[in-house]
Amino acid sequence: MARDRAQHGDYSGPIKRLLIGFLLLCLVGFFLVWRIDSPRVERFRAQVIDRVVPSFDWAMAPVTGAVNILRDFQSYQRIYQQNQDLRRELQQMKAWKEAALQLEQENARLLDLNNVQLDPRLTYVTGVVLADSGSPFRQSVLINVGARDGIIDGWATMDGLGLVGRISGVGDNTARVILLTDTSSRIPATIQPSGQQALIIGDNTAVPLIDFLELPDQVRPGDRVLTSGDGGVFPAGLLIGQVAQDPGGRLRVRLSADYERLEFLRVLRNRGTEKLTDPGSLIGPAEPDLPLQGPPSPFESSEAADG
Amino acid sequence: MVENAAVHMWAMRVIYVALVFLVIFFHLLPLQTLPLGWAGPDILLALTTAWVLRRPEFVPPVLIALVFLLCDLMFHRPPGLWAALVLIGCETLRARHIDLRDLTFAMEWASVTTTLVTITLVYRAVLAVLVVDQAPLGLSLMQLVATLIAYPLVVVVSQTVFGVRKLAPGDIDALGGRT
Q1: Closest CA–CA distance from residue B144 to any residue of chain A (Å)
Q2: ipTM of the complex
Q3: What number is the average pLDDT over the span A96-102?
Q4: In a mutagenesis test of the B interface, which of A19, A20, A25, A184 is the best target, namely the one with the most B β-carbons within 10 Å?
Q5: Is A242 helix (H, G, I), strand (E, B) or coil?
Q6: Residue B45: which residues within 8 A CB-CB, separation 6 or more?
Q7: Which chain B positions have a beta carbon within 8 Å of A261's beta carbon?
């Protein structure tokens, strides 16, 4: 019996080594394929997640709920103080509400005067956060809308107030949102009121870095940071947050979105702005060898200028 | 007796997979969406190395490769590389498990430490060479240290709750004779 096993072991040794070598080859090969052709493998990853995570969903929601209830229960201990804080905030909010109402009326009047058409295509899909990235090194969440709901890679994601991140990886029923705090997140932004262009760079902290500022002197803590729409990835003018300065003197963004509790996220549908790919037909003369196409070219140019 | 041993082995493999899914599940719960600034232990790695050193037949190489590949995919890591390194680390430990069986726990802990430090360094080196974005160095060192600190705890839990302990010389279902 024991000898049987020993012999079996003798034979299985090389086979086992072969198997391990084969496994290693597969894994390393997979990694290299990912390095060379990332989008294809990332699509595969999205499909795997799409298959696995929804099967956890039935348990995830109750467990998350239970833990949150426990946390809320802890907050009952501070209920009196919270009440006081809330009253004070309510007072401030009333003042702001008054200001907002006046501004809204003024805005409506001005819009009416201008006869402005707001972009009707900027609508949104709302999704629920299913899971987070599961690792302390990556900052992303998984939401329960995907290709089935028409989600496309690169769309902006917001909570009620501010930008949260962008879609990266779409499965059939799920999509991954890379948060602004992730180390791979780079968002072109405008800082108001100075109008400076900058990049918002995630660095795995709650307050992303502001970099590539042209004139940092013109930017003060408290300035508003909006998306600039550069690169055509995001629509322009989405609120990101406010400028803040860290103890080291570097400029950072205090995000407007409530990152403590990301629960419902809005994915903005963005079909992209139309691009002027052919500047020659705008200002150049009509081509001489195609006389039939001569007349339409000024017409096209006026259309392009409208759009 | 052999049947019993086989059934037991397959049962433990199923338990291993169940534990893996449990850990993944708790990692994925969306409880904390703010960046933490610290990193907890990699429980799966500690569990796998502890089981490899105690009962290598419960965690065959194919299972290790599949589990860590799944984790790579789920946790948004570069897929395949970490799984390959963990497999290499576990196989070196597996080759030494007979020698380590007779030594003290401190020796075992030391060899686990060297293995994990090596694979972490190689991982970061390969990512740096291939110019892949990687986690901050401090954070991954913190995770490494946390994993090593958690290792004895994982060992104790595996031994008491799941009965995964080293084979004593007189055990019946020892797949003895293997070197």
Answers
A1: 12
A2: 0.84
A3: 85
A4: A20
A5: strand
A6: B86, B116, B147
A7: 33
